[in-house]
Task: structure prediction
Amino acid sequence: MLYKRKISTNRKDAETLRENISAVRRLCSEFKKASMSKIHMTTKHLLSFTLLILLSVSNIYAQEEELKHEMKLLARPLPDSIVLRWAPTTYQLWLSGNKYGYHVTRTTLIRNEKFVKEKAIRLTSDPLKPRPLEQWEPLADTDGYAGVAAQAIYGDGFEVETEKGETSIIDIMNKATEQENRLGFALFAADQSAEVARYSGLWLTDKNVKPGEKYLYRVFPAQVPEGMVVDTAIFYTGVDEYLPLPAPVDVKAEPGDRMVTLTWDKKYQSQFFNSFWIERSKDDGKHFRRLNDVPLVNTTPEGYDEADFHFYMDTLPDNATAFQYRVIGISVFGELSPPSQVVATQGIYKISSVPIMKALPGSTGETVELSWEFPNAKNEKIDGFRIYRSEKFDQDYQLLEEKLSAINQSYTDQQPLMTGYYRIQAFNHGFDGPQSIPKMVQLVDSIPPAIPSGLIAKADTSGLVRLTWTANKEKDIFGYRIFRANHIREEFSQLTVEPTPTNSYSDTINLETLTKEVYYKVVAIDQRQNKSGFSEVLKLERPDIVPPAAPVIKKISSSTNGITLQWHRSPSQDVEKQVLYRNRQGSREWEVVNTFLPDSTQTTDQPSLSGTIYRYLLIAVDKAGNESKPAAPVAGKYNAPKKQGVWITPKVKVNKKKGTVGLSWERPDQNVKQYLVYRKKEGGKWVLINTLSKNTIELPLFGKEKQSSFIIKTILK
Result:
């Protein structure tokens, strides 16, 4: 739409308009005789367009808070011409344009992709302004918008009254001023009819255009009243920018009972179309008939969110015939778009009645018998009935029987729930009727559920116990009760105030107690409060969080074999092992010496360093991994026995040529630090002759002396 302006109204007025549409249809078919004596509009034209305006006008025009005198211009390039449409933004500027007209100039800026500098030329010798009143009458006979525009431009008083003098349109819109409404209706009429725009002096077709050229068009009033500042409207285009109109898209048809609601896109194509023709076919699209006498203009009333689609409602002669629909868009320049894609639909037989149903247990007590009546069968076409069932009154209904014949009036549920809710619904090929009010049936039940099985439990060190068991398979299970005892022979206490609905339960037990076990059992309950037998009793050991008592070292002694410790073992019964720790004097680190069985009371330790004081402590560890606090450490000193060296007789090998004697011997198993070599002459004493670390030596011979003897002594580390 070229220009939007709001005719003053408020929400209460808009509600009054909607409530009185039927009265509007009876409005008289002529304007005031004083101002329109030469224009005769048919009743059909006036009623149609008055109704259209009333339904549309409240949201077509937007109220401007600040008064700005501007010209608005649109241009539409065609293959051989350029069409211009303009409009003033204020009634003051409009009145001036009606009186003095508008000038349109064209400046050529581009020719064959090169910039040219040419002077602007006027496209008409005289200003363009509305045609004289007498020329409007022929147009008004064929175009209902012509009478609206002529009355707005030339009428003395812009009112339309009923034959009985009822409230006029302007009175209903009690906040509007006459001149603002004249402008609004005049521009609205020009938007809907290209011929009205021409007659109103708001249209020009420039045919003196050429491909390869681009033009700058300007539109401005021929005369501006004193004190008024007006912005000139401009538009830059050329015939090379021509694009054909698109077809309306996203056309959908929603069927109803002897009616169809059509919708199509408005959000993405609003810049293309000003109004629409709606066409219908009943012969598979071979021939289409136009449904609306005047172009359809969808608007949104004030106070409502703007819709993203246009809509049209069509009344059908019957629900049996298939119809095809298409939509043709009309631009603000009067062009018709290609037809939209055809959508096909037909009416549906709506079902508003609900079958009256009864539901009772069967004679054997193992089935449910349903029966019903459909009192409105003569007036509503149905194909059959559907049965629904649920365990709950208001939700989770499942389809029990999808398609029962329309002649059926009963149904037997062979596998009913012990307590079930039933609903019935009539349907046909295109519509599902409302569902009936739920009917409850409760069967007699004296059979208890099966005994729960698979009971297991896990407890953590905080005392939290998680119990689970196998869920019962009965459909009418109401829940489970859990029982607990501290001894197998004592009476079990019930833990659950209300039955727990799931096959799991969390319990909290005391861990600081001498009772090491706790016992559980479970019973199942159905919806009739029938109880199963007790499950097998589950024995659960309480998590051990109490550390054992510490062993006490009673004696420590040293010997050549090491340091011997003797202790009193822990009195706790759940000790799994004893751990001995050792600490060397001057060190802060404790190391594990050994681990002992619970009944061990003695050990001998042989540290690596002799003459060093060592401290010892002993702790007990129970089966749960709890460690005792250690008793006071005890100290002992290990004095290792002194190591004695050995005497070795070496092998002697004399080398007379060299004048030497060689000694060699095997290394002993001990850790030798040095070897002392002794020699004794015949009849003499042993004399130390050398000290060495290796196990061989070569000595000079004593030629004149008799043979000497040799012996080696080891010095241990």
Notes: The CA atoms of residues 224 and 515 lie 108 Å apart.
